[in-house]
Design goal:
Strands 7-8-6-9-12-13 form a six-stranded parallel beta sheet, sandwiched between helices. Strands 2-1-3-4-5 form a five-stranded parallel beta sheet, with helices on both faces. It is of the alpha/beta class. The protein is globular, with a radius of gyration of 20 Å. Strand 4, helix 4 and strand 5 form a beta-alpha-beta unit.
């Protein structure tokens, strides 16, 4: 019987779908991570996309207006882009209202809550539609206990933010499941939650409770079960390091994979901060992670080589693996290199 003081997995939120992905008037692909993540990892739940005049970003999915999307099977408009400050622009509101009137509910992972916008709240109430704010943590998060719990855990960590921690965790979890092993992807961000249907938006948790949220997210489990936990930020990031550290301490990973984008030289959005090396991230993660798991170890590196052609990417992967003496792979390229990384996850 499990100790009653150990954390319990929170219930998965009920997300309406299938989705019509809303891209607004976004012009930068980097702001559409959510839409691309849903397209790449939950394509069976994506009916199409909706853009506003001026948009220069597309998922490549069919384009629909709200009523046509509802007729095609969509049941929710999912906001697939981010804005500065996480706010809902005023020029989006007519389209959001039209979506509610067409029969769609609205799902958002923005910092601004849909339910705090009067016109959306009153329209949704009048029509009996739901406004689902994914970036809402559970209300019963406890302060971390630091108590070790059964089961195995793997955390993806990064040299920076926005370079593949979510994709790596998803790839590893699905790769291990395909081998018949017990593995579960644990989402810590809004896109991962939308993909998997459960998780905790770790950056929306009050600071004192971040480690407790990580304990809740990856509860006690069978000894042969592996929770693959989506990392956030970087312990070297001047803004996001606190979230990364709380997630590290609370998840108590037995294993971690370092995620890195070759060619990136500075912390994203902070040009005065040089990007740490993979070796620095390994050493610092080991030093800090030993607080709650003395047996923590790095078992490999995930490289985001999307900007490289195949020969260059393969050479980079081989060089990193040789230099570190660890498996290195680009999970999206797969192949023998990724098979070796999966081998290390299950060893």
């Amino acid at each position: 019987m499990l100790d009653r003081h150990l954390p319990v997995e929170p219930p998965a939120p009920a997300l309406p779908g299938p989705y019509l992905l809303f891209l607004g008037d976004t012009v930068e692909p980097g702001y559409a991570k959510t839409a691309f993540g849903l397209r790449d990892w939950a394509a069976d739940r994506c009916v199409g996309e909706l853009t506003l005049p001026g948009a220069r970003v597309t998922t490549g999915l069919p384009s629909f207006m709200p009523a046509a999307a509802f007729a095609a099977g969509a049941r929710a408009l999912l906001i697939g882009v981010a804005t500065p400050g996480g706010l809902i622009p005023a020029n989006w509101l007519p389209t959001l209202i039209a979506s509610l009137e067409a029969g769609l509910e609205i799902v958002s992972g923005m910092h601004a809550r849909l339910s705090d916008i009067d016109v959306l709240r009153t329209t949704a109430a009048r029509l009996g539609r739901r406004l689902v704010d994914v970036r809402t943590p559970p209300t019963n998060i406890a302060v971390a206990s630091g108590q070790r719990r059964p089961g195995r855990r793997l955390l993806t960590v990064g040299t920076d933010c926005a370079l593949g921690k979510k994709y790596t965790a998803l790839s590893i979890a699905r790769g291990l499941e395909a081998r018949g092993l017990k593995a579960t992807f644990r989402a810590t961000g809004q896109t991962g939650i939308m993909i998997s249907g459960g998780g905790i938006p770790i950056d929306a948790v009050v600071a004192d409770f971040v480690s407790g949220a990580a304990e809740m997210l990856s509860p006690a489990s069978d000894p042969d079960h592996l929770d693959v936990i989506e990392g956030q930020g970087s312990i070297f990031h001047p803004a996001y390091a606190p979230v990364s550290l709380g997630l590290l301490h609370g998840s108590q990973p037995d294993l971690f994979v370092v995620c890195h984008e070759p060619g990136r030289t500075h912390i994203l959005g902070h040009p005065s901060y040089a990007l740490p090396s993979i070796e620095q991230v390994i050493d610092q993660t080991m030093a800090l992670g030993r607080l709650t798991n003395p047996g923590i170890r790095c078992i490999g590196v995930s490289l985001n080589t999307g900007a490289m052609d195949t020969p260059v990417a393969e050479r980079e992967i081989a060089e990193v693996s040789l230099r570190l003496g660890l498996p290195a792979a680009d999970p999206l390229r797969g192949g023998p290199a990724f098979d070796r990384l999966l081998d290390a996850c299950s060893a």
